[in-house]
Specification:
Elements: H1 7-14, H2 18-25, H3 35-47, H4 54-61, E1 66-70, H5 78-93, E2 97-101, H6 112-118, E3 124-128, H7 137-145, E4 150-153, E5 162-166, H8 168-181, E6 186-192, H9 197-212, E7 217-223, H10 241-260, H11 262-267, E8 271-275, H12 281-288, E9 297-299, E10 313-316, H13 320-336, E11 343-346, E12 351-352
Helix pairs in contact: 1-2, 1-3, 5-13, 8-9, 10-12
C-alpha cells in the first residue's frame, strides 16, 4: 500500500520547515518567503503528488469553502441550468465549490441541505423554490433559530431571509404593452389552470396593463395543465404510457382552445396570443395551422422553437443567469457578515424573437 504523502514529506524534499511549506501551499502572504523558496516547495509538492487534507483544513478554519444549492427540479431545464451556471461562476471566482443538495429528508431528521450544513460539508445554502412554494415553515423557523446562512431564490420574498426573486408581474405587464405597440387591440391570454404564485403574478400583470388601457380587450383562457414530467419542453421516450396519455390530453386541450378563436385571428389583424408557459408554445403554433398572415404570439417564458421558425414570435426574457450570480454574491456577503440583509427583485429583459431564458 502506498504511503500517503504528508506536508512533512514536501518540506523535507524542499529543504524547508513544515511551517514554511504550509505557508507556501496555503498561499499565505503574511510571511516573507523568497520566490525561489516558494518555487522549490511547489515543485516538491508536484513531484510527490501532494494533496492537502481538506477535512483537516476545514476543521481548522471552520469553513468548507462549499455552498449547497437546495433544488429538487430537473437541472437540464434551461432556467435551472442557467441559474446554476451563474451560481457556479461567481462561487468559483471566490474560491468556493458548489454542491447540489436535495430538499427531501434523505437521512436523519432534516432535509438534505440542512443535514449537510450541520455536518459542516457546506457553509451556506442557496434555496431554489420548488414550483414557487418556498421554504416550509418548520425549516424556516429552524434556519432563523440556528442562523443558517441561506439565500432564497424565487420563493416570493421573506422579510427575515435574504432573497432574490423574479418580477413576474412586471414581465407580464410589459409584454402586454409590447404587444399593444404592435397594434394589437384584442389579446387571448392562455395560462395553466393551477394557481401558484408565479401564475397569479403573471395574471395580475396582464390585467393591470389592460386596466391601464381599456381600449384593449382581454380574453382569458385557463387550461388544464399536466403538471408532471411531460411539462418539459422535450418529449422523452422514457415516459410511461399514463404520462404520454395525459400529455396528449393536455396538447389536445390547447388545440381545442385555439380552435375556438381561430376565426377571430383570421378575420382581424389586431388580435394576438400570449402564452404564460413556454411548454404551450409549440401546440399553440401548430393549432394556428394555415392562418395567414400569422398573428403575433408572445410567450412569458422560453419555448422550444428556434428563431425564425415563426415570423411573429416573442419572448419575455427572465434573467436566470443574472439571478444565479446575484444569489451567489448574496450568500458570500452573508458569510462575511451574518447581519447582512437584502431583498432583490430582478425584472425581465427586453422582448425578442430569440429565446434566451425560461
Amino acid at each position: 500500500m502506498n504511503k500517503k504523502v504528508t506536508l512533512r514529506d514536501v518540506a523535507q524534499l524542499a529543504g524547508v520547515s513544515v511551517a514554511t511549506a504550509s505557508y507556501v501551499l496555503n498561499r499565505s502572504e503574511k510571511q516573507h518567503i523568497s520566490k525561489e523558496t516558494r518555487a522549490r516547495v511547489r515543485d516538491a509538492a508536484r513531484q510527490l503528488n501532494y494533496m492537502p487534507n481538506m477535512s483537516a483544513k476545514s476543521l481548522k478554519s471552520n469553513r468548507s469553502a462549499c455552498i449547497g444549492v437546495a433544488i429538487d427540479k430537473d437541472v437540464t431545464i434551461p432556467r435551472y441550468a442557467q441559474a446554476l451556471q451563474g451560481i457556479r461562476q461567481v462561487l468559483q471566482e471566490s474560491g468556493y465549490q458548489l454542491m447540489l443538495c436535495s430538499t427531501q429528508v434523505l437521512r436523519g431528521e432534516y432535509p438534505d441541505y440542512i443535514t449537510s450544513y450541520f455536518a459542516r460539508t457546506i457553509d451556506g445554502v442557496i434555496y431554489i423554490g420548488a414550483d414557487n412554494k418556498g421554504i416550509p415553515s418548520r425549516m424556516r423557523e429552524l434556519i432563523l433559530r440556528q442562523s443558517i446562512p441561506l439565500v432564497a431564490f424565487d420563493c416570493g420574498g421573506d422579510s427575515d431571509i435574504v432573497s432574490v426573486d423574479l418580477d413576474y408581474f412586471a414581465g407580464a405587464r410589459e409584454m402586454v404593452l409590447f404587444m399593444m405597440e404592435k397594434g394589437l387591440r384584442r389579446i387571448h391570454y392562455l395560462r395553466p389552470g393551477f394557481d401558484n404564485r408565479q401564475e397569479r403574478l403573471r395574471e395580475q400583470g396582464v390585467l393591470r396593463a389592460v386596466f391601464e388601457h381599456p381600449e384593449v380587450d382581454l380574453i382569458l383562457h385557463r387550461l388544464e395543465f399536466y403538471h408532471g414530467r411531460a411539462n418539459m419542453q422535450i418529449f422523452q421516450n422514457n415516459f410511461s404510457q399514463e404520462e404520454k396519455e395525459r400529455f396528449y390530453e393536455y396538447a389536445a386541450s390547447i388545440w381545442k382552445c385555439v380552435s375556438g378563436f381561430r376565426e377571430d385571428l383570421r378575420d382581424h389583424n389586431d388580435v394576438g396570443i400570449i402564452c404564460s408557459w413556454g411548454a404551450m408554445e409549440q401546440h399553440v403554433l401548430a393549432a394556428l395551422g394555415d392562418i395567414f398572415p400569422k398573428p403575433p404570439v408572445a410567450v412569458l417564458a422560453q419555448g422550444v422553437l428556434y428563431p425564425g421558425s415563426y415570423p411573429n414570435l416573442y419572448y419575455s426574457e427572465l434573467p436566470n443567469f443574472e439571478a444565479g450570480c446575484t444569489c451567489a454574491r448574496e450568500i458570500l456577503a452573508l458569510l462575511e457578515n451574518p447581519e447582512h440583509s437584502a431583498h432583490i427583485m430582478l425584472k425581465p429583459g427586453c422582448h425578442s424573437q430569440i429565446p434566451q431564458c425560461v
